[in-house]
Amino acid sequence: MKKFDGVAGTLFVPLWARIAVSKKFPEYFTDEKALALEPYLPKDAEKGASEYSNLASVARYYNMDRMVSAFAGQRGACNVVYLGAGLETAFDRLSGRLPKVFWTQVDLPEVIAARREIFGNRPKEITIAGDMRDMAWAGQIDASIPTMLVISGVFQYFHEEEVIAFIDNCKTFFPGAQMIFDATSALGLRYTNWFIKRTGNESAVMHFGVDDSATFAEKCGCVLLEERTFFPDALRILRSKLKFVTRLSMKTAERRKMVLILRLKLADA
Ligand SMILES: C[S@@+](CC[C@H](N)C(=O)[O-])C[C@H]1O[C@@H](n2cnc3c(N)ncnc32)[C@H](O)[C@@H]1O
Questions:
Q1: Percent of residues, the chain, with pLDDT higher than 70
Q2: In this structure, are strands 178-184 and 259-265 parallel, antiparallel, or unpaired?
Q3: Does domain 6-265 have CATH number 1.10.10.410?
Q4: CB-ligand 1 contact for 156 (6 Å cutoff)
Q5: Where are the domains of the chain?
Q6: 3 has a pLDDT exceeding 90
Q7: Which of 89, 191, 195, 261 makes the best surface tag, with the fewest CB within 10 Å?
Q8: Is the CB of 213 under 6 A from ligand 1?
Q9: Model pTM?
Q10: Atom of ligand 1 nearest to the CA of 86
Q11: How far apart are CA 215 and CA 231, in angstroms?
């Protein structure tokens, strides 16, 4: 498989994390599809990864899967749209339980090409190639039904003004929709950029962070429906199975709110 550079090159990092955590901590998270994709990984996919970085990646899926399930489980036909989907396997984890959802995956053309090569054509999953910021994807989605936009591991690579402009555009196309995304605090960004440099992918350095969810929601003119930290369940379920340094890092991240998931309601534009 061809080599991916820059931000598109970051897509193997979370896939590796899902594989590593599924093997080591199946009582917390198991992703059968990710395990099946292991042969597609480049040799150095785990470069620089640690138990903590793998769990930090997977905690996003763990929490977002629950948020998507809660949203879709209370509704009939609805859209769940993954923006910057990468090799996300949420469709495989969730679609069996949520048969009324229309699943859409949007990413840059080279990543969507890789997705199509790896996953093949799946009739219940729409894939759209393009830059999510140009909004061409939005016209291909039926906005008359409830919609949740899921942006996982993506906004960090944008600058704050780009994130706010993007959310504004989403309001125009999907007024009243929900959006979930993960965000790192300014302190968390410093740690994460140090980790990224260890993986050797310096062009994927992160810019955007959230220190206060309510203030950020207000800046965007959105309603903050929920704020989650990453690790309460991982700490409870895995406890003494974790390395001391992993547990310490997780507890520090919790105490200082270094990694968050926000769920916003997009007020009318
Ligand atoms: C770290 S990966 C996360 C992938 C996936 N969301 C996950 O959590 O496994 C970041 C992804 O965002 C995509 N991306 C970055 N900028 C984008 C843009 N402007 N439009 C669409 N996708 C973008 C990259 O190609 C990459 O697949």
A1: 94
A2: antiparallel
A3: no
A4: no
A5: 6-265
A6: no
A7: 195
A8: no
A9: 0.93
A10: 27
A11: 23
